[in-house]
């Protein structure tokens, strides 16, 4: 890292950091330049540890030491707090930011190789939900995530942050073909369970048992509100629900449903036995 | 409902709806006037169904029919879209709003009467998390929620919305005494499990089995990030963790942890058998 002090928020070297809360602007800017943003020391270090190449780092002057020890061949921009706030659009106070180069997504075959349990996300729109699902999936031993073509981007800043960096360590890729995508996954040996509160579904545990002990399982989760598309419901091998009480609640939100489903999946082979974790 | 058309966002009759995104202002205003806000037709109907008394309703003119059939002795303010946006601070477009009177919280004894599984939230600060936990707890058959004195308010607009109205149907109350609160719960017959990724904790299922089949269980969840306080960890009967894989994730976020813990609790008595639900 070579340190460069900049005062002017309009300096073109800071262009990667423009208006971080403007979702539409950022989607275009990040796609065009092949970058993603990491926020906070812990997440930045995890991106670097996962082998992503940094384009630059941004810190306020009073936090200049925050990323010490991080070895990288990229500029570190040190800016006054007012400059940071005008540039990114919010108070950076204790924060650190970094822009990283994206990498091409792995092929479906690479992501599925050796995987036993995967999560398949159809058209989720909320980056917070995508990030939280990656964190739960990684923590609960899911092997990979597969995204439908229109699912929200796991490398969007908010998803990265909420995932606590799990988007860097949990392998994932995106299907090219929404319509035929599930047939491709089934062809790769996965028993596909559509999570849905709809009629005609089995309790989750029973549905998982129906996959048989030797087959990989794909847990399909649909968009916030409307759930899975008719096409995906139809092309799944079975439908599963999480048993609900009668207290006028007919479903969980998608991140809670994902956590429960990944947990139940983790119990399938006798359960995870490594380390403990809750809260946070 | 008697319909009143108002154009001026500064009209004092609209004061309940001022700047809904200004959390500090709203906290004072709602506490002082003993009100809470409900947003969206479904949630408004659920508040009314649960017996909360409305103070007023707010709709834009093009949505005047949205709350038809809802019988209430309260004014319905119809406003132009620009008035709504200037008043509440965001685009109301398809939305409906209502202000309801709060009720005194029930006593701890009332909330615990007949309860077998409860969730106890220490100092959560995020209203979205509180709302999501109420939705999961209600859906998964938890009987009541008990809040520490400083836990975020379940009747705050965002919590109400994310809970999909579960804050109206799931009984809850607040402890007066943070320091001695857990002893009070234990005195009422509950085995208290502290969810924590810390060392010395049991896997969740094993910890639940340790409660014995006849005793009520309280699942304790702590603040985002730091988790439970040292005091509550010390006063719990046992510590429990959700078994994690080794993928650099040491814990779930608090709403995911709550969903998994409530799910595991729901399996304790042979499981819920009522209705199915996931996604949404």
From TrEMBL, chains A, B:
Keywords: Methyltransferase, Transferase. One of its GO terms (biological process) is methylation. CDD domains: SpoU-like_rRNA-MTase (cd18095). SUPFAM superfamilies: alpha/beta knot (SSF75217), L30e-like (SSF55315). InterPro entries: Alpha/beta_knot_MTases (IPR029028), Ribosomal_eL30-like_sf (IPR029064), rRNA_Methyltransferase (IPR051259), SpoU_MeTrfase (IPR001537), tRNA_m1G_MTases_N (IPR029026). PANTHER family: RRNA METHYLASE (PTHR43191:SF12), RRNA METHYLTRANSFERASE 3 (PTHR43191). This is tRNA G18 (Ribose-2'-O)-methylase SpoU.
């Amino acid at each position: 890292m070579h340190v460069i002090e900049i005062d002017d928020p309009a300096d073109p070297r800071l262009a990667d950091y423009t208006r971080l809360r403007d979702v539409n602007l950022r989607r275009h800017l990040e796609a065009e330049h092949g970058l993603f943003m990491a926020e906070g020391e812990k997440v930045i270090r995890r991106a670097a540890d996962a082998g992503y190449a940094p384009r630059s780092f941004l810190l306020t002057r009073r936090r200049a030491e925050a990323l010490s020890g991080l070895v990288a061949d990229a500029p570190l921009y040190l800016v006054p707090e007012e400059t940071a706030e005008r540039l990114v659009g919010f108070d950076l106070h204790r924060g650190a930011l970094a822009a990283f180069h994206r990498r091409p997504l792995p092929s479906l075959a690479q992501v599925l190789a050796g995987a036993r349990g995967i999560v398949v996300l159809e058209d989720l729109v909320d980056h917070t939900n995508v990030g939280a699902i990656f964190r739960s999936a990684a923590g609960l031993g899911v092997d990979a995530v597969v995204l439908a073509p229109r699912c929200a981007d796991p490398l969007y800043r908010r998803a990265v942050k909420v995932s606590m960096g799990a988007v860097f360590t949990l392998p994932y890729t995106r299907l090219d073909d929404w319509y035929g995508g599930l047939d491709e996954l089934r062809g790769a040996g996965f028993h596909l369970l559509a999570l849905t509160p709809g009629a005609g579904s089995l309790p989750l545990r029973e549905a998982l048992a129906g996959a048989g002990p030797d087959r990989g399982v794909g847990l399909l989760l649909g968009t916030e509100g409307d759930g899975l598309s008719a096409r995906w419901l139809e092309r799944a091998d079975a439908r599963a629900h999480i048993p609900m009480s009668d207290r006028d609640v007919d479903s969980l939100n998608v991140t809670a449903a994902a956590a429960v489903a990944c947990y139940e999946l983790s119990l399938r082979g006798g359960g995870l036995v490594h380390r403990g974790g809750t809260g946070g």
